[in-house]
Design brief:
This protein has 543 residues and is an alpha/beta fold. The protein is built from 20 helices and 15 strands. 52% of the residues lie in helices and 13% in strands. The structure holds one RNA strand of 76 nucleotides.
Length: 543
RNA sequence: GCCCCUGUAGCUCAAUAGGAAGAGCAGCUCCCUUCUAAGGAGAAGGUUGGAGGUUCGAAUCCUCCCAGGGGCACCA
């Protein structure tokens, strides 16, 4: 019995027993919640408020039906403050526990995704310099969301879109050349120290090359391989694919075809050799250039091609883009432009996150690659554990602007809940270690039926099972709302219950250690390890 | 000027389609001869920036105001 099952069952009852207008009104506003305060139950709904309003005469009969239909799954269905609260029966919890004993982490997987292909694109920072701490937001959100999507049964591709052409890349090359004294320095060139490094390392290779495009390729590649990928690895982020923007332009026919499509809709205007997409004709406040007067395609055009590639050539059903908030307007226009190509608005899901600013002695600095003002991921990871960083960023909604103070970050780092989570894991692990030292073997398997039957009677682990049972409900909400940060609270709850369990139940006894307990502890440890890996955090065996 | 985001406990932040305001840290009271006290148990801390409105119900939606951030390029 999961939240969606409860929802479905109650909706059926409403449809059977109410007039159509009534249940339609109610379904519009009907909500189901995972109850946070376990004393109040496991699930709740606002149904009674709605019945009062839309079908007061049928309230009693509906309640009666709900009681009758659902009494097998719940030990108590009660009304508190007009909420209807459901307390899961021991039998449901027994089944959950049995399944966890039987299947381990596989228990937490589901089939909601029905193997649909989904692409999650994130980080995608320009290959023009090292990653800075702002990019961590995208990385953590993307990793976590992608992992949840896998658990929900989607076929997931994690992708980094590499903007390896265009003006920014030209500026990178010019900055390098200027550093080598080949061309004069200009205002808009990149100023960071890393330019010196790249210039030094590429100096000989580019000495005899005159083709600027060739140098662009080398420079992008250098940045990607020497700065971006190593930083991501340190952070614990990995991608299935790095997609080159430049590769979009290999097939000229495709470009023609897409421009043709827009022309047919009378959305293309030519001006001084440039091509403009007239989005103002379909309700936008601003047009976008597709091709510049110098013949170079714009980023906007690339993005159209890129999404065309995602949905039509690679046949993804859903694309999730995780972007900095400065792309907000761009993405709205992009969606408009893509609708013309028959890519539905609902296929593109966007998470935008606000900027990270640097705070130093009460002064706020805006990060800028051009000015060389930024903290790189490597800088940060040299003083703070990557797991701490991940937990820190997971805990925040993407919507808030973050003022990042390195000193506070270091302080927070020591006090971070990361250690609380790891400590829970380490404690469980330690029990197993102690038992092994005493000559006990940790059981690989145990009869799940017997085990679950035994533990369901033990009050001190009941809340732990209830929390574990919430996982599947939560994973659906995280997908539906695109809010990986909801997982943060959940992780802390799990750890809390584990610490509680640790205090309450002594496993290593003087005379004899119960092998059932060892299997339980092993199972819990593995589940927590699995939970941590969803955030790409490696559990620590000791702390 | 137009558009988007934010303002919640002393501090850092949560709060699933509007639904019963929560954590961590700091401070307070208890608990280490017993599997790691980086822990546990408990109390305290709030007019959710302000003023109106909609609703049975608003941190959440609408209007106005105050404060901060972002966007409005033939950049990405």
């Amino acid at each position: 019995m999961q939240l969606i099952d409860l929802e479905r069952k109650i909706k059926i009852i409403l449809r059977k027993n109410l007039k159509k207008t009534s249940w339609k009104n109610i379904e519009n506003k009907l909500q189901f919640f995972i109850v946070k305060n376990l004393d109040r139950g496991d699930y709740s709904t606002n149904l009674l408020f709605l019945l009062d309003k839309f079908a007061p005469n049928e309230k009693e009969i509906i309640l009666e039906k709900i009681n009758k239909k659902l009494k097998n799954h719940f030990k108590k269905i009660e009304i508190v403050n007009n909420y209807l609260n459901f307390h899961l029966s021991d039998y449901v919890l027994f089944k959950v526990l049995r399944n966890i004993f039987k299947k381990g982490e596989k228990h937490f997987y589901s089939y909601i995704g029905r193997k649909r292909k989904i692409i999650v694109e994130y980080v995608s920072a320009n290959p023009t310099g090292p990653l800075h701490i702002g990019n961590i937001r995208g990385a953590v959100l993307g990793d976590t969301l992608a992992n949840f999507l896998k658990i929900l049964g989607f076929r997931v591709t994690k992708e980094y879109y590499v903007n390896d052409r265009g003006t920014q890349v030209e500026i990178l090359v010019k900055s390098i050349l200027a550093n080598l004294g080949k061309i004069p320095e200009e205002e808009n060139f990149y100023k960071g120290d890393y330019i010196k490094e790249i210039a030094r390392d590429l100096k000989e290779k580019i000495e005899n090359i005159n083709d600027l495009k060739k140098i662009e390729e080398m420079a992008c590649n250098y940045v990607l391989e020497n700065y971006i990928k190593p930083s991501l690895k340190k952070l614990g982020t990995s991608f299935d694919n790095y997609f080159s923007e430049k590769s979009l332009y290999q097939d000229k026919n495709k470009l023609e075809k897409i421009i043709e499509l827009y022309k047919k809709m009378f959305l293309i205007e030519e001006k001084d050799g440039a091509l403009i997409l007239k989005l103002t004709k379909i309700g936008e406040i601003k047009d976008e250039f597709l091709i510049r007067a110098n013949g170079e395609p714009t980023y906007f055009f690339s993005d159209i091609l890129y999404h065309y590639n995602k949905f039509f050539e690679r046949k993804f059903k859903i694309g999730v883009n995780i972007l900095g908030a400065d792309h907000h307007d761009h993405i709205r226009r992009l969606k408009k432009a893509l609708e013309v190509l028959k890519i539905k608005e609902s296929q593109i899901k966007i998470i935008t996150y606000q900027h990270v600013h640097l705070k130093k002695e009460e002064k706020i600095l805006k990060m800028s690659k051009r000015k060389g003002v930024f903290v790189t991921i490597d800088d940060l990871l040299s003083v703070i554990n990557p797991g701490v960083v991940r937990i820190m960023f997971l805990s925040m909604t993407p919507e808030t602007t973050l003022n990042f103070d390195m000193e506070i970050a270091q302080k927070v780092s020591e006090e971070n809940p990361f250690w609380y989570l790891q400590y829970a894991y380490a404690r469980l692990n330690n029990i197993l270690k102690r038992a092994e030292e005493r000559g006990y073997k940790i059981p690989e398997k145990f009869d799940p039926q017997k085990l679950a039957k035994f533990y369901i009677k033990e009050e001190e682990i009941k809340n732990l099972i209830r929390i574990l049972h919430q996982f599947k409900d939560l994973s659906i909400i995280i997908y539906r709302e695109l809010k990986p940060n909801l997982y943060y609270d959940y992780l802390l709850n799990v750890a809390k219950e584990i610490h509680h369990f640790y205090e309450k139940r002594r496993i290593i006894q003087e005379e004899k250690i119960d092998r059932r307990d060892l299997f339980l502890v092993k199972t819990l440890r593995d589940v927590l390890g699995f939970f941590l890996k969803i955030v790409n955090i490696e559990p620590m065996e000791k702390i």
